[in-house]
Amino acid sequence: MKFTTYTQLPPEAKALREEVFCQEQGFQEEFDSQDQASHHGLLWDNQGEAVGVCRFFPGEEPGVWILGRIAVKKRFRGKGAGSLLVEGTEKAVKELGGTEIRLHAQVRAEHFYETLGYQAYGPVEPDEGVPHQWMKKQLE
């Protein structure tokens, strides 16, 4: 698998986010103005299919980047694609001078991020009715 980054939202990333967040999970407010100011990551399988997507952008504090809209195509879940997607993003953020990543994880995915070194902080908050937890990781 190969991780690539873009400065504009590629059509493959948009399609994958629509598939996972809108069709599968029922979110209505998937796209916003932050997409235009973000970097976008795509994980490609060896046949050239987009199997994972995310976006990341600088936070308000120096060195802090926000990672979000993390999605993996259903048939690739539980097979390491999500880890490769997050690890690729961490490498890209470090190359851009980032020292910390924060993300707003769905509570049901909190354990996944913990296995990658992320720690929960703050209260659980709803996002379109789905409980989310802020998590963060210092990059080495």
Question: What does this protein structure show overall?
Answer:
- The protein has 140 residues and is of the alpha+beta class.
- It has helices spanning 11-24, 81-95, 110-115; strands at residues 2-6, 39-44, 50-58, 64-72, 100-106, 119-127, 130-138.
- The chain has a single domain, classed as Aminopeptidase.
- The protein has a seven-stranded mixed sheet, sandwiched between helices.
- Helix 2 (81-95) links the parallel strand 4 (64-72) and strand 5 (100-106).
- The two termini are 23 Å apart.
- The model has no long low-confidence stretch (mean pLDDT 92).
List the helices and strands and how they pair.
Layout: E1 2-6, H1 11-24, E2 39-44, E3 50-58, E4 64-72, H2 81-95, E5 100-106, H3 110-115, E6 119-127, E7 130-138
Parallel strand pairs: 4-5
Antiparallel strand pairs: 1-2, 2-3, 3-4, 5-7, 6-7
Could you write a compact summary of the structure shown?
The chain is an alpha+beta fold. It has three helices and seven strands; from the N terminus they run E-H-E-E-E-H-E-H-E-E.
Distance between the termini: 23 Å
CATH superfamily: Gcn5-related N-acetyltransferase (GNAT)
- Secondary-structure arrangement, i.e. CATH architecture: 3-Layer(aba) Sandwich
Residue fraction in strands: 35-45%
Number of DSSP E strands: 7
What is the N-to-C order of secondary-structure elements (H for helix, E for strand)?
EHEEEHEHEE
Gyration radius from CA atoms, angstroms: 14 Å
Percent range for helical residues? 25-40%
Arrangement of strands in the largest sheet: 1-2-3-4-5-7-6
Number of helices: 3
Biggest sheet features = 7 strands, mixed
The helix-and-strand class reads alpha+beta
Give the CATH level 1 class.
Answer: Alpha Beta
What is the average of the pLDDT values? 92
Oligomeric state of the chains present here: single chain
Unreliable segments (pLDDT under 50, ≥5 consecutive)? Answer: none
Domain module tally: 1
CATH topology: Aminopeptidase
